[in-house]
Amino acid sequence: MSKISLFSKIKNFIHSDAFIFLLPAFILIIVFYLIPIIVSVYMSFTPLKNWNIARYIHEFVGFENYWRFFYMVTHDPTVEPIFITTIVFILITLAINVLGGLGLAIATFFMGEREASSTQLLWLLPRMTPIAVYSMIWYYFFHGSAIGTLNSIMMSLGIIHEPIDWGQSIIPWGPWMIIIFVNGLVGVSYGMIVFTSAISNIPKELVIAARVDGASNWSITKNILIPLLKWHIVYVTTWQMLSLLTTYDHIFLLVEWGLVNRYYGTTWALYIYNMAFTAAEKDLGLAAAAGVILVIVGAILGLLALKILGFEKMVKEPRGDI
Amino acid sequence: MKYCRALSKTAGIVIAIIIIIGIAAGAYYYISQKQITTTKLIRFVPLTGDFDKDIINIGKALEQDGIKTVQLSVWSGGDPNSVMRIYGIVEAAYRINKIWKQNNINVEIKVTTRYVSNPNDVYEDYINKWSLGQAPDIMANGYTYIASLASEGYILDLTPYLNNYTSFLNQFYPTLIDAMKWNGKIYGIPQDTEARPLYIRKDVAACAGLDLTGLAEKIKNGQLTWSDLYRWALKVKESGCAPWGLIHRKGSAHPDLIQFIYAFGGKLYDEKTGKLVFDKAAVYKWFVVEKTFADHGLLPHDIMSWDWAKQIHPTVVDGKTLAFIGGTWHWFEWQTKAYYTDPKTGQQRPLTSEEVHKYFYYTLFPSGIKGKPGLTLSQPFAWMINSKAGERNPNYDKLKDLYHELVFLVVVKASDPDIVAIHSLISGHLPVTKTAAELIKNQTWVDELKNLKVKLAPEVLNNIKNIIEKTVNPLNVQFLANVTYMLEYTTFTPKHPQYPKLASLFAEALDQVLRDKMTPAQAVNYIVEKINADPDLKKSVEIIGKIPQNWTFP
Fold it and tell me: Which of B147, B243, B400, B407 could form a disulfide with B389, with the two C-beta atoms 3.0–4.6 Å apart?
């Protein structure tokens, strides 16, 4: 591509209506996505710590932070359970988030307006509740002693006679079950909102026509709703997967409070957080290096997911023979 | 559509780079300009060591420069009873304002405060906001943060100021001043300290026929060690007097349980090398002791995940254990929080001071070695002054030194004996100055405090009067006086910035030992492996000693 054609293309684009339409989104992407990534990459080559930007910003340590990161990962005896936990956590929570969100959206589609609103609001509660409060609720619910709500209910029903330390004694499924359950409930609402909004845009005539033809709810779901939600399923799956890869806030509290086993309750993102921020010195250079690696892993997984789910086929221009 | 296609990927990248370079250049220009303007130092008043004279001179100098109000902020955190960590500064400002008024100086200090439950959050916010100029002028926080704050230049070196205030400095217990030092310089003024007594239930001991007479003295002299305490706990359990022999904190091993390392003659820090120390033998013995307690049902296997409010405190105050490794502040906490289940009503309520006194015996933490004295561990709080203190006030470039001197004197005032003594009496922390310790013994003054007749700023009095009413009484005063001797046997945790990482490994490993997932030897080797897996920790920690082969407990 010649230089002249590049600049003339830019010039043409800047003078176009499309540029005006795209500008707000373009600015947001630059400010909130591109710049932070560039700053993180830069930080990962500095010895930045304790937010002392003025002091460390001009120092350059090359790949030192990356070396430290790989050294820790390859020498730490607890990496293996953390790695397995991350995979299990992402796969199962993702399935719950996507299928749960889809199921709820479809179920509320067939409900009356009032019931649908109440159900949706109920499922939004986990996301609306402050993280510490939400985590505290499940901390007491799954607590491994008799003060735990679950133990207390099961003991009063005579199902168990001694309290079960769910997150600490049933390894690894106990802690996995808790972190998946707690995060799964939060994530379901996101898929539910996207799918509900998508269903509301499906032309009503299609459903009415199906009803007239005597189609059942299941048949409408299978033959109309799901096929028309394919695009949204791909989007929610990819988005939630990346979100789960980087989430650690609820898990951090559950591990810190001793509810779940430290190794089978810690995911990759939390491991990185602990690596950089446990000491009194906040090792931002190391955190940035780990973050950059996480972005690369996330990007690869994201692209892979889009490929597997057939994203490319969906964005192809219509052939005009519909 | 054709215009959309006109934007190739390269064009997008070029536009993005131009915008980023623009923003970066602007930010760089802003930072460099700010650095240039903040290097102009002009005004200061030589300190004489005479507080009134110095504060008047500073007030006059500020007035001459047209300053009418000085805005200061103070942040701190901790339990609800420790609010003097912020109100001490409010009170000091009130007293300084009074001096200025009496001398016709038309300047006033106004203080804004922030107090949260977790002091670590205050530290994290401080370092996050320092570069933005939003950190407070004064922070009361744990002395362990001094190392990282001083090494970043975030707090003021107080040595030059204290050189003129030697008589003020001499009021403090020398060990506390040592704790405030980093690389030979003093970066903090002690605000409070504490001891971590071993509490023994008198009623449980009596039930098992254990005689507590002279116990504190025996522990102090090293005649009674953890082996003896284990036998006592076993006797309590076997006689059915209490389900547990020992209860201690959950989660973090920092700092209550660290006392075990010192009790077995170990160390955590080498002054000569400036490195942390991982003493394999001492840590192994600590783990063996706790495992032995747990294996015999004297200590819960899952104690590291017990709940403070619903399990640990109720077990202790309801007399379901012989011993509890706690702190002086717990004596006061049990009187303000409803952990105790009243057997008559079945309702939870706080213990009365008489009940706390009736149920609990307190002593030093026993040694692990016969003949070696018992010990305790303190983690003093320090007033730390922002190295940019006063920055939000007018003419900072010119008056920077003057503002720093003023903030230093505010902290000096906040160390007045009555302010220190009030903090101790309402929070259960130990006084940091000898003058405050004396004042606590003064019954007339204590009565005045109890009757809210002491002279305090109205804002301060209003905020602490409820706590005073609940906590100031002769039994608590006696408790504070009785535990102050423990400071002579106190130890500290290292101020090293990597120490929290090591402490967190101790907690992890101990939890595994208590849950029977690792043997004490495996746990020690696990910690070694984790130290070696972290380049920073490996560089900062010296691993010494060996796992003893023939050592047994009890």
Answer: B407
Phi, psi for A12 (deg, rounded to 5): -60, -40
Residue A31 has what pLDDT?
92
What percentage of residues in chain B have a pLDDT greater than 90? Answer: 79
Range with lowest mean pLDDT among A20-24, A102-106, B103-107, B191-195: A20-24
Cα B139 → chain centroid:
12
Q: Can you give the CATH number for the domain in which A260 is found? A: 1.10.3720.10
Q: What is the dihedral of CA A133, A135, A141, A146, to 10 degrees?
A: -90
Residue contact A18–B35, C-beta within 8 A:
no
Instruction: Enumerate residue ranges in chain A where pLDDT < 70.
Output: 1-4, 318-322
CA B319 to chain centre: 28
Residue A286 lies in a domain: no
Is the CB of B13 inside 8 Å of chain A's CB atoms? no
Confidence at residue B348, expressed as pLDDT on a 0 to 100 scale: 94
- Domain total in chain A: 1
Domains of chain B with bracketed CATH: 51-194+380-469 (3.40.190.10), 198-378+490-544 (3.40.190.10)
The full length of chain B comes to 554
Q: Half-sphere exposure of residue A310, counting CA atoms within 13 Å on the CB side?
A: 6
E-assigned strands of B387-531?
Answer: 490-492
Residue B16 pLDDT level (bands cut at 50, 70, 90): low
The secondary structure of B211-261 as a DSSP string is --TTHHHHHHHTSSBHHHHHHHHHHHHHTTS-SEEEE---S--TTGGGHHH
Chain A residues close to B501, C-beta within 8 Å: 278-279
Confirm whether A127 is domain-assigned: yes
Structural domain boundaries, residue A140: 78-278
Residue A26 lies in a domain: no
- Digit-coded pLDDT (tens) for B68-94: 999 999 999 988 889 999 999 999 999
**Is A53 inside a domain boundary?**
no
Q: How high is the ipTM of this complex? A: 0.81
